[in-house]
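User: quick one, fold this
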Amino acid sequence: MKTSALVSCEWLQKNLDTENQVILDATFFLPKQRRNAKKEFQQQHLPGAHFFDIDEVADLSNTLSHMLPKADYFSSAVGKMGISNNTLVLIYDNNHFFAAARVWWMFRVFGHNHVHIIDGGQTRWRQLNYPMSSEQPTSITKKFKAQYCSELVFNLKQMKFVLTNKSRQIIDARSTDSYLGQRRLAETTLQPGHIPGSINIPYAHLMDSTQKTLFSDQTLQSLFEHAHINLSNPIVTTCGSGVSAAVLALALYQSGCKDIPVYDGSWAEWGRQVDTPKHTKKLHER
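Assistant:
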């Protein structure tokens, strides 16, 4: 039987009061969106949800934003949310899977596979006229023991190896203009372009534009095949800063590729290096 990373809003509405279950609101906005995810959570969220901040549950010593924290730090943070190794974790966001997939991936990196994403998130929940809440959650701290799964994470050294040896297909989740190096960058230390040989599949193309639910497994498989991705061969995903790359990893998981690594530093790291090649070729150039 095929396992899915998703649960529907309809399923959750019927199972809101299930014991040993924690709902996480992982909403995250880019600075250009000028929205405050934590404030919006305080105003309204799914009933019983806790707020998961990817910029706080992160390696705060790293100059790059929201990089993976150490295992002990992650264990402590999620334990305070009432999560143990036996807890069913359900994640959603209010920004089209943008960070819900990242948090889903983080739990899997730290050995917790009893985790699902609420398909469509808050957008779909509200479309169905299900109740929202402004009540601030409380929880009893539980013990969570992380077990780091290194195969789900790639670093700069590994990506250089992939590029040199062509050992994996690289998929870039950024918008096409960012991938092509056509979008103006606010940071002068960050160069435009993409990793040579990478294939661009913008994460926004993976979901239904109205319901904001992920496309069906069959549609996702067709989308990857149309982009000349061989699902039988090794893959690694990348993006701007390791967030939307996890949406690609989620879509690949639904397509039967269960252990796809995410390049955590992504372009925020690669694009700042002096010795990394950057390509700004036209989209259809071969």
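User: anything notable?
Assistant: The chain has ten helices and ten strands.
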